[in-house]
Amino acid sequence: IKFGQLIDMRDVDQKILKFNHEKNLRDNDFFVSSSNKHVYDLLNSWPNWEKNYININGENFSGKSHLVNIFIKKFKGVIFNANKFDNENLSNLNLYENIVLENLSENINEKLIYSLINTVEQNNKYLIITSLKPIVEINFNLIDLKSRSKSFLIQNIKKPDDELIFALLVKNLSDRQIVIEKKLVNYIVKRIHRSYSKIFDFIYKIDEMSLIRKKSININLIKELLGE
Q1: What angle do CA 187, 188, 191 make, to 5 degrees?
Q2: Hey, what's the torsion of the CAs at 171, 173, 179, 183, to 10 degrees?
Q3: 33 backbone φψ class: left, alpha, beta (φ>0; ψ -120 to 50)
Q4: Strand 30-31 and strand 25-26: pairing?
Q5: pLDDT above 60: residue 9
Q6: Which of 158, 160, 180 is nearest to 170 (CA)?
Q7: I need a labelling partner for 177 at 20 to 30 A (CA). Which of 7, 51, 144, 163 fits?
Q8: How far apart are the C-alpha atoms of 189 and 206, rounded to whole Å?
Q9: Lowest-confidence range among 3-17, 25-39, 45-59, 211-225?
């Protein structure tokens, strides 16, 4: 699942799941909750940023890619993958005002990334870098890049709250045509590990088990998948 925080009320059977999350729906069905609202609001406040460099970090499936894709669609720009960024990409930066570098880690050409940051600064452009952990915690070998990483505005996507977990479960189970009662969703929300990867792992497992057993989802199956 590339877009970690999706929900479309049209996909939900309202007769089974009677809840009201419409107020939290924003661009491209991104579900805004207390876990990500600060990042969502910051991106939508462009270009009125405190700094031209932003680092959005958070675990896998937390919605980083979805957020930057919404941003680029709205404000225009280009997205590069950090470990594939090359000299040709660097030479074409003058074409864009907003630049996104996805999935920054130790596995990069550090000199090129340093040159990217310099180019952004010299030309008064805007740079968003996504990563699993804060950029200041990435173990760069290049001292100058380490120093530059400290100039970024750090934005962390927090662990999912109850509202977001509920939305993720409903949307993704609905996409798989899995019908589940609201009380069972609430049961899962209160007991599942607050990790985006664990949530999607649970969704994959419940999908697999429903296909194998060809039965509706009940409390016993949920307890089994939750390890209770």
Answers
A1: 90
A2: -70
A3: beta
A4: antiparallel
A5: no
A6: 180
A7: 163
A8: 14
A9: 3-17
